[in-house]
Specification:
globular, five-stranded parallel beta sheet, seven-stranded parallel beta sheet, 22% strand, binds flavin-adenine dinucleotide, alpha/beta, 25% helix
């Protein structure tokens, strides 16, 4: 697909979260289970801004059916159309099958732009779709804008270890594809921009059923969410541990503090690379971007790639034995000392003991 002029509309892949339990019912409704991932609404917000510059429509693309409340939500975020894709439900959450269907739909309907969250699903699905369509994909964009003269999507992302911001364009092929991590963009409803603006019109719903051309080799009987499925981006409090913990058991202490503060455990890539904790906990450029109310960094040096993922926290507390650690430049409160002395004292103080 090489002629940009024949391609129109901005598509946003609307991701559903996994829901625990056996598949509900049969048919395409099985795909209608978990709630919509917040990043999908963040992307609709961006799409709504882009569509005004491009003069194109905004399409929310779902797998499965869409309920009335969800239609209204899509309208609030500026969607003009909801495209419901269906396929053999036995292939539910199979990235290959979803990519086959999304690719076929894009070939037939010709969007100019296709956006998805840089979630576990989005990161797996979008490269497969891009390969099928023979187009480019820019992962983990931090800014999306439009070159109005050329009608091109300007896709900005950190490059060379985060030292520069590169703006990437895809001039020759369509759709222009990008992923964006959760919380990078704010949710902004299209409705209510002006106090007097009327309620948004319900987007029209278009249904399309595609053969995947794939053979079913497995069926989802039950979805069991384990600890590692914890989405750290949604917590108001994150207590993160780094290489300074010195051993994997250090995360037990970090976890203890997180529990007392009603939060979750995060980690630096240093700790993840050592196999001390799962990659789902990693904060930073190649991990999650988080904006909690409180971020406590224990034994984390504050490398720029780590800070890129947590500098949006409202309050940052750093515990590090090196007074010159870069993390202190970003911390609202810094405690210089051995985390194995300090963290138990903080826990003791939270338990009502004397805070010394
Ligand atoms: C392309 C690229 C992408 C990357 N993406 C990420 C990313 O997403 N996230 C990420 O985190 N990193 C990322 N990194 C790696 C990053 O550059 C750092 O190597 C990493 O963040 C270091 O982890 P750390 O702070 O845990 O370890 P270190 O840098 O080794 O720091 C350990 C700190 O612990 C302190 N310490 C030691 N013992 C104690 C103690 N007992 N009490 C208190 N303090 C103690 C030390 O003073 C030190 O400051 C990336 C790197 C590259 C090149």
């Amino acid at each position: 697909v090489t002629d940009g002029r024949t391609h129109r509309n901005i598509w946003v892949f609307m991701e559903r979260r996994l829901a625990q339990g056996p598949p509900a019912g049969v048919g395409p409704n099985r795909l209608q289970r978990g709630p919509i991932h917040a990043v999908s609404f963040e992307l609709l917000s961006v799409g709504n801004r882009l569509k005004r510059s491009l003069g194109e429509g905004l399409v929310a693309v779902f797998f499965g059916e869409v309920g009335g409340r969800e239609r209204a939500e899509c309208a609030e975020f500026g969607a003009d159309e909801i495209l419901c894709l269906s396929m053999d439900p036995a292939l539910e959450r199979s990235c290959e099958a979803m990519a086959a269907v999304l690719g076929r739909a894009a070939e037939e309907r010709g969007p100019s732009i296709l956006l998805a969250g840089a979630t576990m699903l989005g990161r797996s699905l979008m490269p497969l779709v891009a390969v099928r369509l023979g187009t480019g994909l820019t992962a983990d964009c931090t800014e999306l804008a439009v070159d109005e003269e050329k009608g091109l999507l300007l896709q900005t992302r950190p490059a060379f270890g985060g030292n520069i911001l590169a703006t990437i364009v895809c001039p020759g092929t369509r759709p222009q594809m990008a992923t964006v991590r959760p919380h990078v963009f704010k949710m902004e409803k299209a409705a209510g921009e002006e106090a007097s603006s009327p309620a948004p019109a319900e987007p029209r719903v278009v249904k399309a059923d595609y053969e995947t051309g794939l053979i079913r080799i497995a069926e989802v009987l039950e979805t069991v969410l384990e600890g590692e499925e914890t989405d750290i981006t949604e917590s108001d409090v994150i207590v993160a541990g780094g290489r300074g913990l010195g051993k994997p058991e250090g995360f037990e202490l970090v976890g203890e503090l997180a529990r007392r503060l009603g939060g979750v455990v995060g980690a630096s890539r240093g700790a993840v690379d050592l196999g001390w904790i799962g990659a789902a906990r990693q904060v930073g450029q190649t991990g999650h971007t988080v904006n909690p109310k409180l971020y406590v960094a224990c034994g984390i040096s504050g490398a720029i790639q780590h800070v890129a993922g947590m500098k949006g926290a409202e309050l940052i507390v750093a515990i590090n034995q090196d007074p010159d650690a870069p993390i202190f430049q970003f911390a609202d409160y810094g405690i210089v000392g051995d985390l194995y002395e300090i963290v138990p004292r903080v826990i003791g103080a939270l338990d009502g003991g004397a805070a010394d």
